[in-house]
Amino acid sequence: MSENLWKEALKLFAGGVNSPVRAAVKPYPFYVEKAEGAYLYTVDGKRLIDYVLGYGPLFLGHRHPYVENKIIEQLQKGWLYGTPSPIEVKLAEKIISHIPSAQKIRFVNSGTEATMLALRLARGYTGREKILKFNGNYHGAHDYGLVEAGSAATEFNVSTSNGIPALVRNTVEICEYNDLGCVEKKLKNEDIAGVIVEPIMGNMGLILPEKGFLEGLRELTRSYNTLLIFDEVITGFRLGLSGAQGYFNVIPDLTTLGKIIGGGLPIGAVAGKSEIIDLLTPSGKVFNAGTFNANPLSMAAGVATIEVLEREKVYDTARDSANAFSEELKTLLEKKGITFTLNRVESMFQVFFGVREVKNATQAKQSDKSFYFRVHQKMLEQGVFIPPSQFEVIFSSGVHNSHIVNATLEAVKKVITEL
Fold first, then answer.
1. How far apart are CA 226 and CA 224, in angstroms?
2. b or e along 179-204 (b: 16 or more beta carbons within 10 Å of the residue's beta carbon)?
3. In this structure, which of 87, 96, 190, 219 has its CB flanked by the most CB atoms within 10 Å?
4. Do the Cβ atoms of 309 and 346 come closer than 8 Å?
5. Which helix (H) or strand (E) holds 383?
6. Where are the domains of the chain?
7. Which pTM value belongs to this model?
8. 259 is catalytic
9. For this structure, is 315 an active site residue?
10. Modified residue N6-(pyridoxal phosphate)lysine is at which positions (predicted)?
């Protein structure tokens, strides 16, 4: 079934898919018929334990009953109005109550839209044109964010600068992640409107900030009157209710959100200081609009998801399962004498083969992608789905209970033994 669908898809879509990482599964992607809890069910009759989780949004697993019921309730009331609805006020209040930097918020439709708007706001607020980002940080599929981006572009060995005007590229300055010296030099010599950073890199595999890096960014941007933007599309509500900024106690000027705040439905948001958010139309002169901004279904799913996070032990379960999975993998690889490094924080981790440390994109790119892909394929044969790309992240969720973890550990043992 999947093979036949793939053949048809190749006739219909560029490369057979609608997002490139989906084509990384070889010889062709498996097609999913349904999903529930921690499992994907393919059209070929296979059941897979899912550690991709839509690449991060499904922190409660698939079809969490409370979220599903709230979506159905909203669906029965209508799914697009073109006017404000009460549920958008409720989600905004939820987010602002938890995210330290959030005084006001604007909902959009994706992480890409959120980062694009955050950069526009930074320019509008400061009157400057240039932005600073980090090699391998991925901020969505818009022109400014794609300069020296990570993830699928690296996986497929393509330049993310193709199709981007030189005038745009010339407004983006690049530093290596964890390199404060470079940041200080750029801020001193260039008129930078904003520094945008993934507080934890999640699109070059998982790469953690070194001690003092985020604090240094905050100090430097404040010294040079530059806005600090945290891209928390991945980390928002995953590291805790207060996101990475609460986890590390570093408060940016603007925060972009997505993924988890939509409960698995399309969403994005920019949150931050009132004086900055108020620059958006209609109160200010920085333009933003969207037919589907604050879509009622996404709002309902987001409110329901955060309510579950507030009252259930999702973070504990997700952390424990990621820890058990990663520690077993680490132990088995050490016994085999395989060179690797494994980066983990809370419910996120990734393993890099052939390298002893990964603190930036340059080191990540030196890892053995082919060996990682063999592990991915072997895990898939054992009924466990981890990302097909070295440069994505393995995620756990609140439904990865001890039963799921034990089945995963058995699969890991078989895979590493065979390798």
1. 5
2. bbebbbebbeebebbbbbbbbbbbbb
3. 87
4. no
5. none
6. 1-50, 65-311
7. 0.96
8. yes
9. no
10. 259
